Amino acid sequence: MTTTNPFKFTSQATCKETKARAGVWETPHGIVETPRFMPVGTIGTVKGLTSVQLRETGAQMILANTYHLHLQPGEKIIEQAGGLHSFMDWSGPILTDSGGFQVFSLSKISQIKEAGVTFKSPRDGRIIELTPERSIEIQNQLGADVIMAFDQCPPGQSDWETVELASQRTYRWLERCLKAHQRPQEQALFGIVQGGVYLDLRKNSAHSLVDLDLPGYAIGGVSVGEAPELIHQVVDFTTPLLPLEKPRYLMGVGTYREMVKAIAAGIDLFDCVIPTRLGRHGAALVQGERLHLKNAQYREDFTSLDPTCTCYTCKGVTRSYLNHLIRSREMLGYILLSLHNVTELINFTQKIRTAIFKGTFVQDFGYWF
User: What is the reported pTM?
Assistant: First the structure.
């Protein structure tokens, strides 16, 4: 008896002057049009937004985090609720990070060994052991469409020897993740290319992962302290090493220039916390610029935040009102800015997609190169 693979990536258009491409990726919970920005919902919520608002932003696929959901409320509760889709009322595709990034971001409270990583919970101080097997077990229970392999992400300034050890361990952990994965027909397991800023290590990592014929591939370990020029160099070098017929995901990147340059290299998917984080700090992303709505210049500015944007914030309120809300520290102000910022980055990648189809990608977005 044969089973149909629910994950299928199709490239629909390419740029003649770069490696940019527009495609569609089929998943069990719907399609994702690429290139695409994916909002981050770390603990089962894109901060400040309801699922209805999130759909109105144009979001097709969102993220959640294994480590944080394990801490609260726990994967058993989410499984009892019918899985993460049901639990958070999101019917579209979901990707869960493995907890591997927390190996980097929570390095002060973690200890890395070959078996896995031991964390001291920032919530209650209890000891948490996260291994490749345990990460996959939790992700199987959460039920996301895409689950990420447990990896070791070294800091951007690490020396070659440190990065080599992390890259080799990441591969060994991936092999263990594959053996532990219990739902391959329902959940696509992505491998993560590591190697820091060292191109020889990136090449070795990419080749070893491609040999495993995974459903998709991610480039990790960028934007973790290295200079933007090095990020671009790594992405330009690594992306062409990954299969054309599989989706390519650049982890943790969501700024205008970095996304344009990565799309030009052939990247399909992005995620970043920046739109909601900026919203919570009173800042808006508007056509490539960052506006701080608390500033006095907006107190009597009765224009729309962005007349070209169709989100509720831009259609319904003025910059003056947003200034008032932020100065008053009203929750609504942060929500309205987050709503706009998420819409802005999704629309930005949608405009790039349209330009690739029209053959005007370089003409329309080349100023970001």
Answer: 0.95
